[in-house]
């Protein structure tokens, strides 16, 4: 074989026919509808499951009407989400502050209390974690039967998580 000989790849077929291209689709108008958020000032959730009960004290209309009240200062769900943000970035002290402020705004906010207990476990404050978990158990046990039955799945899940975290905190 010399340099002047043409190189013929075994994979290459001579005189290939180009692939046939499909026709261009016709233009059409597509209407896309979006459901409105239930609470427009809160972040959107991508969950197909039933939402947990909204905190009872969440009633911004009853708070001081004359003064400007920022949502970040009063909304326990927003504060819990902010605590979650800090927790994911391993800033446990800031997460504790956010969860504590959410609980201060709504003492019956179970998810904020449960997340604070988790943060206490991370910083090895086991007695505080046990206290938070015990408070959750007492709050769920004190619910009226019809209120408990309306969201039984949610309350059972929170109760289970609180008991597991309390047991883990006791063992350390």
Structural features, described:
With 172 residues, the protein is mainly alpha-helical. The chain has helices spanning 71-74, 76-88, 92-105, 110-122, 126-141, 145-150, 152-171. It has a domain at 70-171: Tetratricopeptide repeat domain (Serine Threonine Protein Phosphatase 5, Tetratricopeptide repeat). The protein is 50% helix and 0% strand. Helix 3 runs antiparallel to helix 4, helix 4 runs antiparallel to helix 5 (126-141) and helix 5 (126-141) packs antiparallel against helix 7 (152-171). It is elongated, with a radius of gyration of 29 Å. The model has no long low-confidence stretch (mean pLDDT 81).
Keywords:
mainly alpha; 7 helices; 172 residues; Serine Threonine Protein Phosphatase 5, Tetratricopeptide repeat
- The CATH class designation of the domain at 70-171 is Mainly Alpha
Distance between the termini: 79 Å
**Percent range for β-strand residues:** under 5%
Sheet with most strands: none
Mean pLDDT: 81
Radius of gyration: 29 Å
Q: Kindly name the structural category.
A: mainly alpha
Order of helices and strands: HHHHHHH
Outline:
Helices cover about 50% and strands about 0% of the residues. The chain is mostly helical and about 170 residues long. The chain has a domain at about 70-170: Tetratricopeptide repeat domain (Serine Threonine Protein Phosphatase 5, Tetratricopeptide repeat, Alpha Horseshoe), CATH 1.25.40.10.
Topology:
Elements: H1 71-74, H2 76-88, H3 92-105, H4 110-122, H5 126-141, H6 145-150, H7 152-171
């Amino acid at each position: 074989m010399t340099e002047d000989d043409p190189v013929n790849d075994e994979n290459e077929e001579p005189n290939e026919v180009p692939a046939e291209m499909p026709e261009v689709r016709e233009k059409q108008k597509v209407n896309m509808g979006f459901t409105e958020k239930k609470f427009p000032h809160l972040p959107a959730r991508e969950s197909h499951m039933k939402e947990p009960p909204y905190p009872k004290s969440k009633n911004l209309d009853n708070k001081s009407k004359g003064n400007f009240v920022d949502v970040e200062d009063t909304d326990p769900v927003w504060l819990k989400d902010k605590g979650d943000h800090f927790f994911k970035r391993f800033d446990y002290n800031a997460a504790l502050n956010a969860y504590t402020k959410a609980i201060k705004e709504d003492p019956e906010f179970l998810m904020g209390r449960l997340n604070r207990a988790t943060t206490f476990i991370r910083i090895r404050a086991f007695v505080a974690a046990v206290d938070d978990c015990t408070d959750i158990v007492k709050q769920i046990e004190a619910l009226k039967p019809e209120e408990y039955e309306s969201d039984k799945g949610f309350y059972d899940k929170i109760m289970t998580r609180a008991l597991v975290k309390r047991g883990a905190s006791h063992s350390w």
